[in-house]
Amino acid sequence: xxxxxxxxxxxxxxxxxxxxxxxxxxxxxxxxxxxxxxxxxxxxxxxxxxxxxxxxxxxxxxxxxxxxxxxxxxxxxxxxxxxxxxxxxxxxxxxxxxxxxxxxx
Length: 105
What we know:
This protein is mainly alpha-helical. It has a domain at 32-96. The chain has 3 helices and no strands. It is rod-shaped, with a radius of gyration of 19 Å.
C-alpha cells in the first residue's frame, strides 16, 4: 500500500498540475481509501460473527479458524489503509500550508 501511495504522489508531482487540483485529487483518493476501510470493517465484522458462532461446533472448527484469520487479515488491511490516509492528509496539509490556506474544514 505504501508503494501505491508513493506512486500516487509521484504521479501528481510529475503531472505538473496546479496545487488546487492536487488537493482535490488527494481528497478523492482519501474517499476511496475510506470506502475500502469500511468494506474491510464490514468483512471483519461478518467473519468475526461467523467465527464466534462456529468456534464451539466441532464440525465447523476449521471454518472458525479461517474466519479468525480473515478477521486478522482485514484488520491489518484497515491499519494499512489508515496509514495511507494519514500520509495523504499530511501531504494535503503541507500543500495547503505552502499556499497559505487552512487545512481545517
